[in-house]
Amino acid sequence: MSFDSALVWALVTALVAGVTRGFSGFGGALIFIPLVSAAFGPKVAAPALLVIDTVLTLPFLIPALRACIWRQVTPLAVGAVVAVPAGVWVLEHVDALALRWTLALLSLGMLALLVSGWKHSGRHNLPTTLGVGAIAGVLGGAAQMSGPPVVAYWLGSGQPSALVRANLFGFFALATLASGTAYAAHGLMTLEVGRLVLLLGPAYGIGLYAGAKAFHGASDRHFRVAAYWIIALAALLSLPVLDALLGR
């Protein structure tokens, strides 16, 4: 793949990822990381998305922080923050092929739970919540893909889409601080990452605002169906068979 074709591929990906993130509150990384990594590598794609998403979601963050329920967000965020360094270690040391298979299987497992109609019984206990947060933290540090376990956890409790979306913005705000610190400490914030941020940021921003506008006309059912499709797409895009299509 030439640089020009790789850049076009990445720009289209950033636009679609932005729409997804703006609509659902998550899912941008599930599209961005596998596809942009195919062109520029995961050690560039993951830090670039962290910077792009952090800067461009700031206008959405303040209203979401007012609407989210912090007693639900905080335990998940604590578990994630503690586990993020383990995810960064995975990004640096684990074979990329094995990581992609693992992400695909995890995404499919969580999707199967949601589609089956599974619901949490009773209140969320602290150990379980911290455990879900830790899984999200590892996935976030490894590939900026902390959304699926958290979304499955909250959607499985039958919470309304507006609350899930607000909680996700609050959760990602805290988890991003941990990921950004870890990436910087491990020397992953490079000039190449900076160039990719400048190139792809505008496309992601356009998509983000388009997705947010679409969300305001969506019902809970539409939100839930969209979340299912996003997780399914993430699983498919994480599969190594994508390499043949991209000439890698």
Automatic annotation (TrEMBL):
Keyword line: Cell membrane, Membrane, Transmembrane, Transmembrane helix, Transport
Topology relative to the membrane: Multi-pass membrane protein
Subcellular location: Cell membrane
Transmembrane segments: 48-66, 73-91, 97-118, 130-156, 162-184, 196-215, 227-246
Main location per the UniProt record: membrane
One CC-aspect GO term: plasma membrane
Ribosomal protein as UniProt keyword: no
Similarity-based family: Belongs to the 4-toluene sulfonate uptake permease (TSUP) (TC 2.A.102) family.
Protein name: Probable membrane transporter protein
Organism expressing this protein natively: Ancylobacter novellus (strain ATCC 8093 / DSM 506 / JCM 20403 / CCM 1077 / IAM 12100 / NBRC 12443 / NCIMB 10456)
Native organism taxonomy: Bacteria, Pseudomonadati, Pseudomonadota, Alphaproteobacteria, Hyphomicrobiales
